[in-house]
Structure formats: C-alpha cells, structure tokens
Amino acid sequence: MSLKTWWQSVTGSGVEVLETAPAKLPERAGYEYGVGPGGLTESNQGLGAATQTDRRTSLSQLYDAYLACPWSWASVNAIARTVTAGGLVTDWTNDDGEGDQEQPDKPQEVLLLERMLAYCNPRENIRQILRGVITDLLVFGDAFIEVVWLANQPVALYSLDCPSMLPIADEHGTITSYVQQTELGQRAVFEPREVIHISLDSPRSGVFGVSPTQAAMLPITSWLFASATSKEIFRKGAPPVLHVDFPSSHSPSEINKWVAQHMQRNIGPRNIGVPISTKGGAVVHELAQSRTMDYLKYLEQKRDEIIAAYGVPPAKVGIIESGNLGGGTGESQDRTFMVNTVQPIAELVLEALNFHLARLGFGVEGWKLKFSDIDMRDSKTVEDIRDMRLRNGSWTLDRYRADINEPPVQGGDQPVLVDRTNLVRWADMDAASKASIANKLRGTSLEPGDPEEGEPVTVEKPDKAGVPTQLAPFAGKAPPGVGPPDEPDGGAPPTAESRRLLYRARLQEALAALPGGVDEHAA
User: Fold this and answer.
1) Helix, strand or coil, per DSSP, at residue 373
2) What's the sign of the alpha-carbon dihedral 151, 153, 157, 162?
3) Considering only CA atoms, which of 100, 98, 94 is closest in space to residue 368?
4) d(CA 448, CA 438)
5) Which of 47, 135, 364, 433 has its CA 20 to 30 A from that of 408?
6) What residues have CB less than 8 Å from 132, skipping those under 6 apart?
7) 198, 294, 219, 283: which is closest to 245 by C-alpha?
8) DSSP labels for 399-410?
9) Secondary structure (3-state) at 422
10) Cα separation of 175 and 191, whole Å?
11) What is the pLDDT along the chain (523 residues), one digit of tens a residue?
12) Cβ-based neighbour number of residue 194 at 10 Å
C-alpha cells in the first residue's frame, strides 16, 4: 500500500496528495538591508546583530520590557485577543456579501484543512497558537510556526520561540533553512516549508521586522524608571527633602548618628506624622515640597506614548477619561482600533496561513481562511440599526427575526415602509404613492375621477371640456369691446350691457341652428 493510498484510507477522502512543489522562482538581483556578502548564518544574523548572543540579548530585553511595563502588556494582549476573538474559519471567496448566492458544499480539501486546524497538536489549539504569533509580532517583530508534514500535506502546527530562531539566508535574503538554538544548548534544523515566518513591516525592508515594542522602548524605559522612583518614594512614606544645619561642634559621628535615627524614626509609611526633633542647635529646613503629582503626571504622559506606539485607544486598555477632547466616542475608538491596528495585523497573519497551509499544503482553490467578525457595537446601537432597517424596508420581519434567532412568522417575508403612523408594503408602494398624490389634488381642477373597482387610483389630469357643436361657429370670437386693438371697439373694456347683448345674440343664433328651430322666448 502506497503512502497516498494509506493517507486516503485514514482520512476517508478521495483527495490526492500534492505531488509536486511550486515552481522555483528565478534568482533575484537585489540585496536585503543588513545582510552581508556571506548571508545570514548561525553566527552572523546581519547588521545590528553580529552574533547569535547579541540578537538573543536584544530580543530578551524586549521581552523583559513587555513583562515589566503593564501598558505594554495590556496593549499587546488587547490586540492579540481582539484579532482572534472570533476564531479562525473558512470562507468562500466568491461570496459577494449580498446574500443572493448560495454557498456551495465545502470540498474535501477544505474539510481536511478544517480537521487539521481543529486539532493542531496535543498541547495547543489554533487560537492559542495565533495569539502567541500576534504577541511575538508585537514584541519581537517576527513570529514562527512549525509545520509538521506527512508526505506532502501538513498534519500539525506548533508554536516556536522567536528569540531562539535563526533564519539562514543567502546574500539576497532568500531563506534556505531555519535553525533553532535554545539557551540550554538544544539545536534543531528546519526546511523552509517546515516554518511559517511572519514579519512586521520594516522601514528598510530586511529579513526581520520592527516591533512596536522596540519603537516604544524609550517611553517604556522612562516609565519603568519613573515607576521605580515613585515606588521608592512611597515606600519611604513620601518624606520631604530636608536640609539640616548642624553646629560646627558636631562631629561626623554625631551627624551620622542623627541621620540613622532620622531614617529609623521618621522615614517609612508607619512613621508618617512623627515630628523631626533635633538638639544641640541643629536647624532643619525643607528644601522643596512633595513632587508626587509631578511624578504621576509624568507616568501618565509616558503611558499615553506607549499605547500610541501600539495603536491602541485608551478605552481598550482600561483608561477611562471623561471629557477628554479628541478622545472620541467609544464606537469611534472601536472603529479606529479595528481599521488601523487590528485588521492590518490580522490580514498579515491570514496571508501567510492561506499561502502556506491552504494553498501549498492542501491545494485549496476558491476558499480562504479568515477571522470571524465580532460585533463590538453597543447593544442599543445594534437594536436601533435593526429597527431602522425594518422601517425603511431594507430588512423583512423574517430577516430581523433571523438575526435575533427567532423563527419566521406569516407575512414576515414582505418588506414594509413605516412612516410615522403609516405602514405600507413595498409591493403596494405604487398604489400608495398615487393615492397620496390624489389626496393632495382633491378639491382642485386636477382632481382625478373615482377609481374603478379592484383597480388602483390614477392621478392623470382630467381632459378639458370641449366646445358644444352649436357654439362651435362662435369659438374663439371675442365679445364687443374686447377685440384686438386694431378693431374699432378694440381696447375698450367690456361692459355688463355689452356682455348681455353678446350672450343674447349668440344664444339666439344657436337656438335657431337647432333642428326645427326654437324661438328664444319659447325657450
């Protein structure tokens, strides 16, 4: 039995294992920053890290700063937990998001990929591995994942310690292998396909990335020193800065004795309020008032610099400052955090996973890995948006109920428009629109006629009444005194008598034209 046949019998699928690796790319001509003529070796990891020990020491300092500074810890964890909150799922790439396409059944390649992600290794799940990857990116600038292969498909994933990983590359920056050397002297060698190497952006390119922790080392270090100073001040009970003027008769031993007694009797939280006493003519002066508030403000300033370097809004690390100008609302901070910080890091990780696992590992086409979205909006905001979509007809009632996990109801598949107290189905919108216009025209010369039974009302303009046949010969003729200015009586305003005479004349002519003739007086 061949390995491929055995693998298909184990997985119960007819998926063929990839037989060939992707074609090798042509050699590049350019060089990477920091990579010398000899490339990257175990003893030379490039410019700025001449030896393995130097690079490990630098990364160890970043790790210590991350653990010692709570704002660095909070910022890194906020980003890592937000990125992975929804979990890693597969998605159909041809879905346009309009809801008018039915998702096809997942092919066997996708099912195999999901099965491997569901059980990465006996100790870690995929969410823990990816949280560690994002943490390494934010602390060290690089992250490494070990991929265990069986034949030509990955079967397990493991996290790798970043400070102990050494990429081996030629002078052009092309990776040829990876070497891991632990602090205990252990050594492991990996092929390029056995390691997924993810790097953050670097200003001058290069094999290694630049982390926000490295960029924030100055404010982190300042915060640590200020915090240590504040700790010592409060440990001693925030004592005032004193100057003691001893008489010249005091010997150095007497001065040292008084200082020791002062440290024992007056310094420390339990000695707060104990008066300072002297004898022999010594005088005590306070040089400066307590600067505790200055230290606290300095810590806040450095705190803001640290979280700004990570791109984390204050509310995401537990900083609530009411009335802070420029801070924005909670929803605006959420959007800024997602767009500027979380999503770029998530896409960087997904790009590597989709290429190494989905594409090269399982040959997946038309599907991709993604982080499931998490709705971070306030519940009141979400309900208001749902209600607005229902009222303007964007959603049907069944769509609304499906969104809140409720079953559909009869007639709930009809979109409606709710305008204050009016409720109209969108299917009846044409009739409702015409009825509304007809109601506005009621009582005017454009008032439409009564609608036919079973038919919607129309708003067509009524035809103008025609001229009776008997009066057709007189149509368009002006009465006496109202003719054009060039006629004898033209231009003169008509009088009541002239109108009466014209009316009688035209009426007599019209009656005479009727069959049999009708006398005016008889009529």
Assistant:
1) coil
2) positive
3) 94
4) 7
5) 433
6) 143, 159
7) 283
8) HHHHHTT----T
9) strand
10) 9
11) 344 444 454 455 544 444 445 566 788 888 888 888 888 888 887 755 434 457 888 899 999 999 999 999 999 999 999 999 989 998 888 765 544 456 788 899 999 999 999 999 999 999 999 999 999 999 999 999 999 999 888 999 999 999 999 999 988 888 999 999 998 889 999 999 999 999 999 888 888 999 999 999 999 999 999 999 888 888 887 787 788 888 888 888 888 888 888 888 778 777 777 778 887 778 887 777 767 788 889 999 999 999 999 999 998 898 877 655 555 556 778 888 989 999 999 999 999 999 999 999 999 988 999 998 877 677 888 888 888 888 888 888 888 888 888 888 887 888 888 877 777 776 777 777 777 777 777 767 666 666 666 666 565 655 555 656 655 665 555 555 555 544 445 555 667 777 778 878 877 777 777 766 555 555 4
12) 16
Tokens (6 digits) for 499: 């109108």
